[in-house]
Write a structure and sequence with these properties.
It is a single chain. The chain has 79 residues and is α+β, with helices and mostly antiparallel strands. Helices cover 34% and strands 39% of the residues. The protein contains two helices and five strands. A hairpin with a 2-residue loop joins strand 3 (61-62) and strand 4 (65-66). The N and C termini lie far apart (40 Å).
Length: 79
């Protein structure tokens, strides 16, 4: 009986861990002149995948110039 219970709990844990749903990433760019905010929605994404994509948005470049060199800072957070 214990083995069956452990198997059921393991299957339930895996099912919950890979739950795909819509995830929202909020990116805020600040510089000395302005502050802007952008929300990006990832549809049917796991939390792990959305977190990686969201973190990648903070390091995007604009016209092949890194954001950090323009004196602005972009931070992204998965909600």
């Amino acid at each position: 009986m214990k083995k069956i219970t452990l198997i059921v709990l393991a299957v339930a844990g895996v099912a919950l861990a890979s739950c795909k749903k819509d995830r929202v990433c909020t990116c805020t760019t600040t510089s000395s002149n302005f502050t802007s905010s952008e929300k990006i929605t990832y549809f049917d994404a796991t939390k792990k995948d959305a977190r990686l994509l969201c973190a990648g948005n903070a390091t995007q470049t604009d016209n092949l110039t890194p954001v950090a060199s323009t004196g602005s800072k972009t931070t992204c957070e998965l909600k």
